[in-house]
Amino acid sequence: MSTVRIGNRLVGDDQPCFIIAEIGINHNGDIDIAKKLIRVAIACGCDAVKFQKRTPELCVPMAQRSHMRDTPWGYISYMEYREKVEFNKEQYQEIDRYCREEGVIWFASCWDNPSVDFMEQFDSPCYKIASASLTSDDLLKHTRATGKPLLLSTGMSTVEEIDHAVEVLGKDNLVLLHTVSTYPAKYEELNLKAIATLRNRYQLPIGYSGHETGIATTVASVALGACTVERHITLDRAMWGSDHAASLEPTGLTRVCRDIRLLESSMGTGEKRVLEREKPIIARLRGAN
User: Fold this and answer.
1) Strand 174-179 to strand 105-110: parallel, antiparallel, or no bridges (unpaired)?
2) 146: domain CATH number?
3) What sign for the dihedral angle of Cα 280, 284, 286, 288?
4) What is the pTM of this model?
5) How do residues 125-177 score in pLDDT, each as one tens digit?
C-alpha cells in the first residue's frame, strides 16, 4: 500500500495515524474562535486542522437562498448566513500566518472551483473533497489539476460512484476516507468494516471521517486500518451552528488523540514471542512444574 506525503508527514501504512481536527465552519465566522480551535487542536495532539471553503452564490441552491432563519446575527436569509460564515482573504491570511507560526498543517475542503483557486494562494499541502462533492466530476478534475495530494470522503456514495471518482482522480497521491454522512451518526450506522472493504477494493490508503458523538469507534477505526482520522471539533457542543452537535469538545479530542497513540503503541509486530518481562513470571509461576 502506498503512502502520501502531506506537508512534513507521511500518511499510509506503517505511519502514525494522521489526526485531522475539522474546524469546518464551527468558527461561526469569527477569527478569534478559529484561533482558539487551532490552539485546542495543537494542545490535544492533532497533526492538522481543516476548514471549509465555499463560494455561496455557487453552492447555495436558489430555492434555499431566501429561507429565513434565526442566527447569531439576527433573523436573516440562509444566503446571508452562508456569506457570514465564509472567511475572506485577509482572514485566511491570518489563519495561514497563525498556523505556520504554530507549526501545524492546515488545509480546506473546497466545494467549488473558485474556492480551489482561492486556496491555491496559500500553497495548501493537500485538499479534501467532501462526500457531497464526490459525484462532481468537474470539481474532482479541477482539484486534481492543482497537483496536490487529495483526501476524498465517501459518505452517501455507492461503490459504483466511488469507482467512478477514483477513475476520474487517478490513484496517485489519493487517500479515501470511509464516512457516514449523518450528523450526528448513530453507532449502528458506522459500518467500520467498510474500511477493510475500501482498502481491499482500491489498494489505497484508507482513513475515517467520523460524525458520531463518542470516541471509541474513532479509535477502533485505527485498529481496523484507518491511516488518518478526521473529527469535527468545537469549543462547546451547545454553540449555535449545524455541525457543533456532531463535534468533539476539547476533552473528547484530547482523549481521541491520546487513545489513538496508546492503540498504536499496543499494536506490536504480530509476532508471538515471550517477552523479557515475562521470564521472571514464568520462573515464578511455572517453576514448580
Assistant:
1) unpaired
2) 3.20.20.70
3) positive
4) 0.94
5) 999 999 999 999 999 999 999 999 999 999 999 999 999 999 999 999 999 99
Q: Cα-Cα-Cα-Cα dihedral of 94, 98, 104, 110, to 10°?
A: -10
CA–CA gap between residue 248 and residue 142 (Å, rounded): 32
Q: Encode pLDDT of 44-73 as tens digits.
A: 999 999 999 999 888 888 888 999 988 888
Number of domains making up the chain: 1
Q: Which residue segment(s) compose the domain that 117 sits in?
A: 3-286
